[in-house]
What does this fold into?
Amino acid sequence: MTKHMKDLGGATRRDVLVGSAVAGTGLVVGYSVLPHVTGGAREALAAGNFEPSLFLTMEPSGIATVHITKTEMGQHVGTALAQAVAEELEIDWNDVRVDYPDSHEKWGLMITGGSWSVNWTFDRNSRIGAAARMALVEAGANMLGVPANECSAANSTVTHTSTGQSATYSEIISAGPIDRTFSEDEMKAIELKKFGEYKLVGTSVPALDIPAKINGTARYGIDVFVPNMVYGRIVTWPTRWGAMPKSVDDSAASGIDGYIKTEIIEDPTGVQRGYAIVLAESIWAAEKAADAVSVDWDLGPNASVSTADILGYAKKATADGEGFAWVIDGDTDAGMSNAATVVEAEYETSIGYHGMMEPMNCVAMEQDGVWHLFTACQWSTRCTAMTAEALGVEPANVVHHQQYAGTGFGRRLEPDAMIPAALAAKAAGRPVKLVYTREQDVMFDFHQSLTYQTVKGGINVAGDLDTMVHTVCSAWATKRQAPGFLAESVDKKGKIDPFSTNGSDHWYNVPNQYVRSIENLVGQSATPPGQLRAVAPTWTMWAVESFLDEAAHAVGRDPLEFRTSLLKAVGKNVGTPPNTVGGAERLRNALLVAAGRAGYGVKPLPANTAQGIASVTSQERGSPTWTACVAEVHVDPESGEPTVNKLTVAMDVGTAVNPDGVLAQIQGSAIYGTSRVLYENITMKDGSIEQSNFDTWTPMRINQAPEIDVNIIQNGHYPAGTGEPVVTVVGPAIANAIQAAVGARVRSWPITAEKIKAAMQEA
Amino acid sequence: MAVLNINGVSHVVDAPGDTKLLWVVREHLRLTGTKFGCGIGLCGACTVHLNGEAVRSCQLQLSDAEGATITTIEGLDPKGQHPVQKAWLELQIPQCGYCQSGQMMNAAAFLESNSSPSDAEILDAMQGNICRCSTYARIKQGVRRAAQMMQEA
Ligand code: FES
Ligand code: FES
It folds into this structure.
């Protein structure tokens, strides 16, 4: 897979061109193909030395289309990114459109994940909008015969300030041509608007993707049809990974109307070892035939693995001292030996299923030597390269056509539907539409790894936690997806997966800290790990935030006061602009807002009901979204059944580009996280996932959803990702509330009535 | 050959009688607003109206639907202006949107039978529809808002 890593460097820095080839044909804004343009944008365009649809296109009518190279999967990313462009472009919002282009390499690195989209792209899009505005002002001033520095732009119009003469963007573009090149330095020097000066950023304009989503016209991957296509259906493997079909007996399928054949195909990429794929003229025939055929399998290496084996390996590897250091601060040996109180605990999280509403799917089609893949994908660059490898063609000959995603959560970083669809299309000699059954989507997920962590803390005579030793054992998604992103360990003894460990390097001032990261080799093979929404903080924050409560209780301190006393912007927690400016104080502030809003410590609550608190900095230490939550939970003392009454969330987002969009993300992620810890469980037996559909894997429904109070903190700092942090904060807040309510500490997922009951009896 | 009446139009369908209605609607007739989510009647993404009732199209066969009046999201309102659709737009309910055709079809049928529901009745009526973007808080508001619009109309 390493050969795909060259794609990950991002676009090379080049000049930005604003131009139109011929007068009246419209305006395009993009990078030049070559590092430096000599003849101007117009000449570059005429010579083809220009990628015309990279960022922004404007028609003579004045309509601007912002090209979104991110996956639209519920976060309305296109709207937020278009707002950034439009703010600086000074265009009437009604003149703005978005589109979602194909995977041609001119778009640079295409990846959507980690709540990074707005965070990464806000500054770039603002500058693109500003450059286009400057070019339009210059051209407009020229048209009016006045100096450009006496003109300003607003509402799609350039106006000469003193005389009031004006020209609309439409008039300027129609008159053209426009020809303006911005060097990299010039792009950097553009002075952007600041917080407080925005007209469009910070307003809740309606999301541009919603109208098509209320009348049935929005097209998702599963809705794609191409001429002459057939349906492919994978015959379900007997184990999650490692099974290979040896032979197929399809006599029972031969009578099914529309059945074509069943192909056995090897997968050279190792995503699976191979496939038995049924081909049929209709989806119903494919479905029936896949049930009817009988496949003789080589079960592969994982046929006896169970959840207990994965957990057993984790415990043994941890005890044996496997793994490498991720954090070494101060002297943990001295800290432990000086400690007045030592607290130790083990935390587990279960295997997680993404549970996308739209199952994995792909339509694959070959035309004139070029392969076309139609589906929603969060990582086109990687997925097209791997599909090319499977097909034995050049990556440049595989194009991904982006579709709306019926959720993603990190699942669509994977090429596992593209590859069999393409291989089946090659075998069939016709385009193939391949859709996973829900059962296949559950069982053949790239699951969130089972994790096992130990935390040992030393509390000094003053009652302060000054020492933490933390081990994190999981399967390592990065090792599968992009091994080039594995990081050198702090002790320089080997490589570790930062995306399986981050979050353990928290923002609390604990001077003596050691974190060790351990790969779970059994889990790595039996449950090939993927990235799930908030990634590692899902489990590291679970351990850290549960542990902080346990430590506070051990020395009789209030969990809120215990946390805030550790959150000072000093030393390594001071923070640096732009992403972490303010440091630990911003987390402290979020905690205080959540606590205040929830009436923490002052709200009268009925018996067996209590509030628990937690705070997180997902997704990474370097790009934190400062987030806190107070969970109010009732526990039935007889059954142990927990009911989450209310979640009060406070999130410091810096700048909310679209506040209603941020609110929706927080509301949704609070439920997603609560569902994960209370209701969602995946287990393995005989190498196969035991759950298969919504009867055995049971996410939260509307009648189970708690009340959510959302408090968005804005202070003008750089926009932070908002789709993930709350997923990680609700779990420990709920567990901490349960302990406060009935004295029961549950340290593993899912948090069930049985576990609470058992812990109550222990307490 | 079967004849189906969908959104006021007669469609001739060449498919075996045991074909799931969901696949007929989506894959044969390409009314793709109706979604596949689970295939076992537990998510509601495939909800359509059969003679005015909200039904799970993955649980019906083509032969069950012959002679019935079927409505899908595309035909809920000729202009896409059903009160439920208006409320869904006003409150910006869809995130990914994938579950929302089913949510709206379920809500529209429910409001026909109960024009001023309590919150508890709304939750009970909507619990068969899963939303993995977890838009539940807004769906609850949306059903309330649509009920209000229907009363005002
Ligand atoms: S697809 Fe019919 S209920 Fe889920
Ligand atoms: S809006 Fe995405 S699943 Fe409901």
About this structure: The mean pLDDT of chain A is 92. Chain A touches chain B through 61 residues (CB under 8 Å). The longest strand of chain A covers residues 642-654.
